[in-house]
Amino acid sequence: MESQNIEWKENWRDEYLKWICGFANAQGGCLEIGRNDVGQVVGLDNAEKLLEELPNKIRSTMGIIADVNLYNEDNLHYISIKVNAHPNAISYRGKYYYRSGSTNQELTGYALDEFILRKYGRTWDSSPVLDVDISDFFHDAFAIFREKAITSGRLTPDDVAINDIKLLQSLNLIEGNYLLKAAVLLFHQKPEKRCLGSCVKIGYFENEADLIYQDEIGGSLIGIADRVMDTIYTKYFKGLIHYEGIQRIDHYPIPREALREAVLNAVVHRDYSTGSQIQIKIFNDRVYIFNDKRLSANISDDDLFSAHKSSPGNPLIANTFFRSGQIEAWGRGIEKMQQACVKDNLPEPEFKITPTVFSICFHIHCNNKVNVVEEVDSHGDFGTNFGIDFGINFGINETQQNILKMLAENPTLTISTIADTLKMTKRNIEIHISKLKEIGLLERSGTKKNGRWIVKKQ
C-alpha cells in the first residue's frame, strides 16, 4: 500500500515531478508509474520513451539525479523512480514540496522557513536576535532556573555558580556576540515584545460562546508553567475536600501531574513562529489546551501514542527545560498524562492532531460522584440490578467498566487482548486492572499463564 515512501500512478504526468521533489526533501522514496491505486501493475504504452525522458526532466527542473528503471511483471511494463533524501532544500519551479505521510504538501510561510532552517542545521529557536543585550534581562528567571536545576539534581550548585552570561553560554543560548531567540523566550522578563506567541491565555467558559472570565500569563518561559498552574488551581478549579485523620486532602478536577505535563508540552514544543498564543479553555466538565505545533517529519500521529524517541521542535528550549528538571527527554509526555488520569479515575485525555495544531481535551471531575458500574451476577453475566453508585469510594471510569464487562464475558482474556480491543497500551490496562483489584471489583485466580479473572459483586 502507499505510504510515506511509496507512491503509485497509472500514467505519467509532468505534475508528478512535485512528488519527486517531495521525496527528495523528506526521507526519500519511490514513485512507480504503471500501477493503479491498489498497487497492481496495469502497464505503460510509452515506457521506453519515459525511461529516456524522465531522468533529463528531473535533472533539468530540480538539479538532482534519480534512479529511473524499467521493470516487467506479467508482460506489463512499469517504471520505478527511486529518489534519495537530499541534505539541501530542493525546489521545483521555485516551489518547495515535502512528503508527509502519504500526502505531498507545498511548503509556504512559516512551514517553509522552518524547513529551510532545519535543512541547514538550524531551528527557529536557534536564530540570533540582533537588538537584545544581556544587560536588558532581569535576574529573576536565572534565579528560578538555578533553583530548579539544583533541586532536581540535573545540575550541581557548582554548575550554576557562574554569572548569567556564562550560564547562557553553557546552555548554548549565545552564538558569537548574539543572543538566540531561545535565550530571549526563556529568560527575558518580556519575551512577548519579540515573540507574540509567548503568552498563555486561560479562559473559563459557560458554553462555547460565553466567556465568563480570563487571564493572560506572560513573562519568561522558564517559570511560566508554575504561573499557569497556580492561576488555574487557585482561580479556575475548586478542590473537593475530605480528611484522612486530621489531615485535610484537596482533590482537584484534574491531577496536577497530568495538567502540568500538558502545559509543559505546549510551552516547550509549540511553534512560536506563528505568533499565536497557547489557549486553555476551561468548562465545567472539560478542559481544552490548543497549541500551534507541527509534528517532526520522522514522527507520525500513530508514533505519538506508542514508544518513540523525543524529537523537540525547539531543541534549545527543550534542553534548558530538561536541565531545570521540569521535563524528561524520552518522549513519554502523552503516556504520563494518560497514566495520571487513569490513576485518578478519569477517562484518558483525547488528542487531536492537525497539520498545524495539537489539542488535548481532559474530561474532569464535576462532583463527588464519578461513575456507575453494573452489577455482575454469580454466573458472570450482567444482572438486572443496575445503577449501583460507588461514589467516591468505588468510582470507576468508562474504561474500567468496559474491562469488567469483557472479563465477565470471558474470564481468560489476556491484558494484551484487552489492550488491543480498547486500543490502549498494555501499561495503561495494567493500571486500570490494578485499580479494580484495589477496590475489590476484580480478582485473579490461578497462574499468570493459565489463570482466570473473577469479577466480584459488591
Describe this structure in words.
With 458 residues, the protein is α+β, with helices and mostly antiparallel strands. It has three domains: 6-107, Schlafen, AAA domain (Methyltransferase, Cobalt-precorrin-4 Transmethylase, Domain 2, 2-Layer Sandwich), CATH 3.30.950.30; 121-367, Heat Shock Protein 90; 372-455, Arc Repressor Mutant, subunit A (Orthogonal Bundle), CATH 1.10.10.10. The protein is 33% helix and 22% strand. It has helices at 17-25, 47-62, 109-119, 140-152, 157-160, 164-170, 181-187, 224-236, 256-269, 315-323, 333-343, 391-394, 398-409, 415-422, 426-438; strands at residues 6-9, 29-33, 67-73, 76-83, 91-92, 95-100, 103-107, 128-129, 174-175, 178-180, 200-205, 211-217, 240-244, 247-251, 278-282, 286-292, 350-353, 357-363, 372-373, 388-389, 442-445, 452-455. It has a six-stranded mixed sheet with strand order 12-11-15-16-18-17, covered by helices on one side. The protein has a four-stranded mixed sheet with strand order 1-2-4-3. Strand 21 and strand 22 (452-455) form a beta hairpin. Helix 8 (224-236) packs across helix 9, helix 9 packs antiparallel against helix 11 (333-343) and helix 11 (333-343) packs parallel to helix 15 (426-438). The longest helix has 16 residues, at 47-62. The protein is flat. The two termini are 50 Å apart.
